[in-house]
Design goal:
184 residues; two-stranded antiparallel ribbon; DNA polymerase, domain 1; disordered N terminus; mainly alpha; globular
Amino acid sequence: MYNQYNLEANNSLEKIVKNFKTFLYSEVISKGSIRSYLSDLRHFLGWFFFFLESNRLLKLKDLINPQEGLTINNFCFCLKKINPKVLDAYKNFLIENNIPPKTINRRLSSLRRFGAFCQTQNWLSENVFESLKNVSLNQKLPEEKYFLEEFKTFLWQKGASSSTIKNYLNDVKQFIAWHKKENQ
């Protein structure tokens, strides 16, 4: 079965990734950092397309041309779906899946750099990725998921603000911690 989120199988997306790679080389970045940036971008795009589909915000199959894959115009259309709520959802996804804080911060940095690249291509008028703030390296990451990602997505779909979502998730985490302590 074909995995539509496999970016390597989509020639148009791979061209975008290669152009981003050329952009990074022009900024005199080490090969190791470039490799990380490209991996981080592929990770985000795979998550992003899955997020759009699973939240019924977009049907990717309607945007994919059988001969060309995802065209630049359709990719730009998808880029316009990225906003602070989507970026918060991605950041929370990373946190709730116990990704180490240094890896999260590297991925967020990669996205900020990708946003700058998109501006040079005139795909974005402003770098929406600049709103991404790094996580604290001392931040306690949740030990268990407890369906927090689903709850967060539910709140997001209902139009809750990012601060409301953050506060609700913190309240639930505090309750879980209290419950664990009471049942020891």
